[in-house]
Here is the input.
Amino acid sequence: GEWEVESISPAVAPTLRAVLSLGDGRALAGGSSGTVYYRVPNAAPAERWRQVTQTLGSDVVDLALDGNGEVWALTRTSGLFKSSGDFTSWTLVDAPPLSEGRQVVVHQGALYVAGSESTNRGVLLRDPTADGGYVPLVSGNGGSQVVSLFSNEGTLWAVNGGGGFIIDADGGLPFSFND
Here is the structure.
């Protein structure tokens, strides 16, 4: 395909770490210092990306859209924020027990986070009714941490730092682990 460069104002734009398509040419991008930008479709090139917040306190590392139209942002310091509407107001929902947040994914209506932690390889299911609000999904200590999550056609996939896959093939928990 063909790619087109789009600039973010101001001239000294933050380092971007996440992008989320909202459809119809709309998108969000997140980056350093908790800054979030909104892409306005059909705007002039210099005005296409607008800063909507700089209040999340830490680098935004990932963004996800749930089935209710709410957007979730995960920060490097593991703050989990939620926004709806025009994305100018973000609420800190909680802090997953991760030493460093990496990714947030919505899969079959549930919210999953991944990042660095000392046990369970860093894959957590958000469950506000659980002790601590999260359920670890990969048992055992050691091994490689999860570096990426992906939801596709009823399956939640994860890739660990050692190049293996963690697969939720049937919706059962915990995940199976294959180095």
